[in-house]
Amino acid sequence: MRKTDLSETGKLSDERIEEAAILDGDHLFTVPRPGRHHHVMLHMHEHHGYEYIRNVLQGFTTTSGRFVERIEAHRIAKAAGQLIPRAGGYAKGEVNDQDGNHLFSEDVW
Q1: The domain containing residue 98 runs over which residues?
Q2: What would the 3-class secondary structure string for 39-87 be?
Q3: Kindly report the CA angle at 34 between 23 and 109, in degrees rounded to 5?
Q4: Count of structural domains within the chain
Q5: Local confidence pLDDT in tens for the 109 residues of the chain
């Protein structure tokens, strides 16, 4: 594993994006890679009784065990060299995240 420079802090870190995650208050839900956020929502519905999933935070967990929202996740993934080109392109309203600022699971696996 290589050290990555998180440009805003200037500190070197081994932190990488680990899993897609949804945070609902104090409850964190994840699924293993290459799971996407809709897989996390399906898990919440099937295993935790969620009927409607709204007012939650979508983000990622990191190898440091933190939950980070999409903007911070993008900085971490970019610094760690995890960004990959999307085979399926980009949906309407999504930014080419090689230069954008919000991370989507499609950008890393």
Answers
A1: 4-107
A2: HHHHHHHHHHCCCCCCCCEEEEEECCCCEEEHHHHHHHHHHCCCCCCCC
A3: 105
A4: 1
A5: 444 455 555 555 789 999 999 999 999 999 999 999 999 999 999 999 999 999 999 999 999 999 999 999 999 999 999 999 876 666 665 655 455 688 999 999 9
